[in-house]
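note to self: dont lose this again. the chain is below, predicted strucutre after it. 196 aa total, dont forget to put it in the shared folder this time
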Amino acid sequence: MRKTFFKTVRTLLLLICAAVIAQPAAAQTKAQDKEDNVKKVLVVYYSKSGNTREIAKHIQNETNADIFEIETVTPYPEDYNTATKQAKEEINRGYKPPIKNKVSNIDEYDIIFVGSPNWWSTIAPPVSTFLSEHNLSGKTVVPFCTHGGSGISKCASDTAKLAPDSTVLEAAAFSGYGAKNARKEVADWIKKIGVK
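---
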């Protein structure tokens, strides 16, 4: 009987030791799973006046995202009237101006915010170029725009058309005049769409 008692105690001690040793490994596995489920976020934007850039930076700060600025090979004219006339002609023709750079590691991102100024009720042509040259299939796309009073217009729907196999979340439009101070507005939107 005494022998059986010691054998039982020994077995219990071995089981306790095994459980203690396994605990950190289980915790490590849980931490790894949590890390693996973290979505990688990219903010892509085109900005001529700097307003869309301000919103993009707010989004980056709120989501801990990477950021990418779309730049055209040939910049738009500095003169406002000349630039808007050129933009209108490009939009009417469906012209997509060449851009300087591409996101070479686009496959690594799960969520992509796509920002543009609202030009003639739609996205700026360089944003159309970016969307046409990058495969966003299976990704979550979040459109946003800055404007001088015209709101979202067709910016969200036109972005969605150029990212047909992606999930498009609720877009947001921000006044260009208040872009610099729109951090709370941006944070509220991000919380609402469930990205944060």
